[in-house]
Design brief:
Distance between the termini: 33 Å
CATH class of the largest domain: Alpha Beta
CATH topology of the largest domain: FAD/NAD(P)-binding domain
Shape: elongated
Largest sheet: 7 strands, mixed
Number of helices: 8
Strand content: 25-35%
Bound molecules: flavin-adenine dinucleotide
Structural class: alpha/beta
Order of helices and strands: EHEHEEEEEHEHEHEHEEEEEEHEH
Oligomer: single chain
């Protein structure tokens, strides 16, 4: 029988949210294992913006500084690999990995992020994070006053268009099928000279991820410098759901104001449990989670 190592806390996901939680716990002398398989969602983007002190850095550089600083706390250990199952045990939880190792902890933190489900449109995946972008706060400034497309529909498209209109006057909405705007929304879009194209998209014309336009299924095309795409997502890790964690209507793990899920002792932070998708928010919710878990453990040991 392989021996199972015991920790106070297992954190699954060692990107911004997980590292931030680990720092608070390591500094509180709690034994922590971070299990991470190195697939953060922002890997395709060349530069990360809007996180104070690290604006414009590569995503990897920001995570590397974080990891280096967390590694200074000897109670924090790292395991490179994928967590595949989680079980509730009498005194905590057991996590097993893809390579067959098992670890135990009193508390679990999921900092596992979300997985973008990119539409199967030729050329889109290669542009994702570079010139096909998801968020005006992260990348909008870099494309200010450029010919900008919004690939979305209805309420969501209207909301993004309103935000992006602040950054560029040259906007076209691509609904990739019949439009679903309300008459009031259509009026407002018309007032701002924002065109809506419903023709299905065939492909994204680009060179090395730099978009030059959209090709439509009817053979027409349109030139562009940037395209916002709101794509569907799923939880990157299914273990929270197998443990009974409830997801909200949008697909995020439901947490209380201290980041605890509906399952006592199980916490979530970062993208997996928040619609506010940013490095700053991942770090902030990770920090709160670390403090919340430390407080609970410390109270139990007192
Ligand atoms: C293309 C793109 C560009 C972006 N640009 C910006 C930007 O410029 N500025 C900004 O502030 N935000 C940006 N974001 C958002 C930002 O990247 C996320 O908000 C942030 O990465 C969330 O951090 P996280 O720790 O919650 O999740 P992630 O960074 O996604 O990390 C999750 C980690 O958990 C690991 N993991 C998941 N499941 C398991 C498992 N079962 N076992 C082991 N490990 C597991 C993954 O491998 C990964 O390392 C961008 C996002 C995208 C998609």
């Amino acid at each position: 029988m392989p021996t199972t190592k015991n920790f106070n806390v297992i954190i699954i996901g060692g990107s911004y949210a997980g590292l931030s939680a680990a720092m608070a716990l390591g500094r509180s002398l709690k034994s922590v294992l971070i299990i991470d398989n190195g697939q953060p969602c922002n890997a395709p983007t060349p530069h990360s913006h809007n996180f104070l002190t690290q604006d414009g850095q590569t995503p990897g550089a920001i995570a590397a500084i974080g990891k280096q600083q967390v590694q200074q706390y000897p109670t924090v250990q790292f395991y490179d690999g994928v967590a595949i199952t989680g079980k509730k045990m009498e005194n905590g939880f057991e996590i097993s990995t893809g390579s067959g190792k098992t670890f135990m902890a009193k508390k679990l933190i999921f900092a596992t992020g979300i997985k973008d489900l990119l539409p199967q449109i030729e050329g889109l995946a290669g542009c994702w994070g570079k010139t096909v972008i998801h968020c005006p706060y992260c990348h909008g400034y870099e494309f200010r006053n450029k010919r900008t497309g919004i690939m979305a529909n209805g309420e969501l498209a209207f909301h993004i268009t309103m935000l992006v209109n602040n950054l560029s006057q040259y906007i076209t909405i691509f609904t990739n099928g019949p439009a679903t705007f309300t008459p009031e929304q259509l009026d407002k879009l018309q007032q701002h000279d924002i065109a809506i194209i419903t023709t299905p998209i065939a492909s994204i014309a680009n060179t090395n991820g730099n978009i030059s336009g959209i090709n439509f299924t009817d053979g027409t095309s349109m030139s562009l410098d940037a395209l916002y795409a709101r794509v569907a997502f799923e939880q990157h890790c299914a273990i929270p759901q197998t443990l009974g964690c409830v997801l909200n209507e949008q697909g995020y793990i439901q947490v209380d104001n201290m980041q605890q899920t509906n399952i006592p002792g199980v916490y979530a932070c970062g993208d997996n449990s928040s619609f506010m998708r940013s490095v700053a928010n991942a770090v902030a919710t990770g920090n709160l989670t670390g403090a919340a878990v430390n407080a609970e453990l410390t109270k139990e040991m007192f």
